[in-house]
Amino acid sequence: MHILVTNDDGIHAAGVLALAEAMREMGEVVVVAPDRERSAAGHSLTLHSPLRIFELRDGFFAVDGTPTDCVNMGIHNMLPFKPDLVVSGVNHGANLGGDITYSGTVAAAIEATLMGIPAIAVSLATYERLGHFAEAAQVALRVARQVVEKGLPADTLLNVNVPDCPLEEMNAPLITRQGKRSFVGKVIGKTDPRGRKYFWIGSDEPDFNDYEGTDIHAINRGHVSITPLHLDLTNYESMKIISGWDF
Ligand code: MN
Questions:
Q1: Cα(first)–Cα(last) distance of the chain, in Å?
Q2: Which domains are present in the chain?
Q3: How confident is the model at residue 87 (pLDDT cuts 50, 70, 90)?
């Protein structure tokens, strides 16, 4: 079994190393990850500049691009095999609610799903530098085993969020839906030493709605959250409504 590991925190991130280590239990692991942190890169593909690959050591490749570039290049150009599974993580910080649209972690799993390869995104719900990454990687391994054994539905990936605690303190995994945050985004404007204005986005603590059944609710109560995400973004209910509009 061949497993591609990636994430947007960069090739040197503790979570990536922990995940690569854990996934070795299942087969041959190759890591293809950005050469630096590219969090919140979303599902962006580099089309207007060249990309370079650096082999850091056996099975570890850094790409000077986005997480999506890594999966795309890994599968199309670099690896001598088509991976049986792509696991993105363990991300430093949760990927909950609508934030998954910004997420490079989830985007890497989306890219694999688009290519017809089963994929899992795994994030550790912490702001601490020294979080329980090895524990979260063990959770990822358990989920990966199920994915390989049972198979995922078409065009579906799993978004897994793990509470930052030892395995024995984690509550049972819950299958959840994507939650929502109340949008209280903030942009701070300041002045640089040369007198020019600059801005900083999203400096506030996330303000998530704690609704039952959501990924947010599960993480807030120390559960592992597993949300199946579907790549067909069509709102089928709305199709009926909008087809009655006068275009
Ligand atoms: Mn990240």
A1: 52
A2: 2-181+209-232 (3.40.1210.10)
A3: very high
